[in-house]
Structure formats: C-alpha cells, structure tokens
Amino acid sequence: MKVLIIANTDWYIYRFRLPLARFLRGQGFEVVLVSPSGRFAAEIQAEGFRWLPWEVGRQGINPFTEAKAVWSLVQIFRQEKPGLIHLHTIKPVLYGSLAALTGHVPAVVRSITGRGYVFLGKDIRARFLRLLVKPLYRFVMRSGQTFFENSEDRQYFLAEKLVAQERTHLIEGVGVDTDYYQPLPEMDERPVVLLASRMLWDKGVGTLVEAARLLQKETDARIVLVGEPDPGNPASIDVDMLSQWVREGIVEWWGWRADMRSVFAASHIVTLPSLGEGIPTVLLEAAASGRPIVATDVAGCRDVVQDGVNGLLVPPKDPQALANALAALIKDKPLRRKMGAAGRDFIVQRFSDKKINEQTLAVYRQSL
Fold it and tell me: Among 44, 275, 308, 363, which lies 20 to 30 A Cα-Cα from 166?
C-alpha cells in the first residue's frame, strides 16, 4: 500500500519524519514524501524515497494562491492514488484534508505538532488567522484521525470543538533513535549551554539571550545557538539581530548543523525556553545523549522534563529564573551527570522511536 507523508517544508520531513518513513518501508509500505522544494529534497531522495514537489506558501492567505495549492494536492492524490496520507503542520493538515475529499483518499491521518504561532501568537495577525483557521479545522477534522503530541494540545482542540474526541490519539512526538543517540561523556572544557531550534522568538531565544547577560556576571559558560532563522514564520529572528548578539559576545551562533550527535557531545546542558511545543524532539535527543535539560513549564516541554530529576523547569519569559536554573547546573558537574543518566532512562522507557512508530502504525491500520 502507498502512504504519502506531507509537510510544509522538506526540512521538516528530513529532520522529523525520515525515521517513520524508513520504518514503514520496512513494514512493506510504499512511502512517498511530499513538500515544497528545498535543499533537503536531495537528502530525502538519497535515502531511496520518492519525493514530490508541492508549491505552497508558508504565510500567504491570497485565496487564489491558496486554492491553487489545494488543487495541486488534488492532482497529486489522483495521480498517486495513495491508500493513506499523513499530514503535518497547519497548511498541509488543512489543505491536504480538503484535497483528500476530492482526490478520493481512503484514509487521512493528521499530526498536530504544537499550536504554533497561529494559536500562541498575541498580535493582530495571529488573532485574525485564528478566526480563519478554526472553522476550517472544524470542517476538515470531521473525518479521518488526528494525532496530538501532548494532552494539553488535544484538550485545547476538544474544548474549542475543533475535533471529536473519538477521532483523536495521543502519540508523544516522533520519538528518538536511542541506538543512535547514546550517552556521551562531557568534554573537559568550559561548560556549554546549548539551544538548538529554529531561530524564533517563540522558541525563547530572546529569553536565553537575556539570561546569558545575567550569567556573564557569575559563570564562564558559553551560550551556543544552533539553527537557522525561518523566514516563513512570523516569529523568525533576523540574521542581523543574531549577528549583533554574537558581536556583543553574549552568544555563539553555529547556524545549521546536520550532525546533532556531535553537537550534543560538545554541550554540557541543553535548554529550550519555548512558549509551547508538541513534544520537542531536541529535548528527547539531548536526554537520550545523557544531557540535563532546562525548559519552560509549558505544554510539551513538561512532558519531557521531570523537574528535579532529569532537568529543571522554569516559567516562560523569565530570564532570571532561566539564568538561576542554568547556573545551578553549570556549577554542579555531579548533578549534571545524575540528571543526564535519569534522562536517558526516561527516554528509553517512554520515547523511543520504535515505540512511537509502532503506535503510529496501529492507527494507520485502524484507519484502513
């Protein structure tokens, strides 16, 4: 049977869904990956998968352009005749669900990977987009199955009457390859605090920068940002701002890194002071690598961080609290080691990609 996995960037598929694609291929499925074109399309194809281009803008709301994006998916579905489609991120979820009605797709599965800018944003644009998006969700989610990565996001969608409870499933993220991400010894050098994500304000990058200013007064830790801005997201941080922080000596910015295992090996503590997540994969990978994690006490993050056990939780948008938590770990190597070991055990028990992929496959079979 043919399965189409669809997302709004080829980066998303490459970073988060290739393990699922490999697993499904091993189960005998024909897997085709669909996204807008980018630099990771070649990497996807190098894995032996067919990849199909789909042109869709990240921020556009022009009705003619958006209708064209829906119609192009209809054409893909009619040509490919998939038995099941798995949709990720907001426009693929909405447009793919609409196209499936006309494209006669037997089974539709959606992943809500966090509420993101549309539901978390406080500005006028975000409020306007919510008015547009909510009725669409109610319409398209009347059929098919929907995955949520944490119970709070699912409860929000249920409370807003965007989806019926019997069509929802809790599958905690995309999992982590615990064979690939193994506990790593600390390098014997200045402690490195790592934030690895897209360079977005919503990820708490600005909060970490302010915490770094405070930490400069009491520690000699290096604060490292790994990742790139995301121009398709309204919360993206401008390159000039990142460069200014580097010039001031507040942070180091390493940009995009494909080999995250080596990045974790160079770090001592991993942080994600986000405003909200599904299940943050970077924290799963960091904990699997034996690193203590510091994150905000918000949906998604608190599903991964056991406060005081494998890491520390702090309030969102609180640079002083974040600085205090990071300082406690920077100054206490035995505590870092203890929390890192606890985190590894927790991830193996609950978040291994083998377990997550099996749960996903079970819903596929139910849908079919």
Answer: 275
Helix 353-367 / helix 18-26 crossing angle, nearest 10 deg: 60
Which DSSP string corresponds to 92-122?
HHHHHHHHHHHHT-SEEEEEE---HHHHH--
33 and 53 assigned to the same domain:
yes
Q: What is the pTM of this model?
A: 0.89
Q: Does residue 184 belong to any structural domain of this protein?
A: no
Q: Please enumerate in sequence order all residues whose Cβ is within 8 A of that of 301, keeping only pairs 6 or more positions apart, or say none.
A: 272, 274, 277, 280, 283, 295, 313
* Helix (H/G/I), strand (E/B), else coil: 130: helix
In whole angstroms, what is the distance from residue 226 CA to residue 239 CA?
13
Q: What is the pLDDT of residues 241-272, one digit of tens each?
A: 999 999 999 999 999 998 999 999 999 999 99
255 phi and psi angles, rounded to 5 deg = 70, -155
Same-domain check for residues 235 and 327: yes
Sequence letter at residue 3 = V
CA distances for 310 relative to 175, 192, 275, 338, angstroms: 17, 17, 20, 8
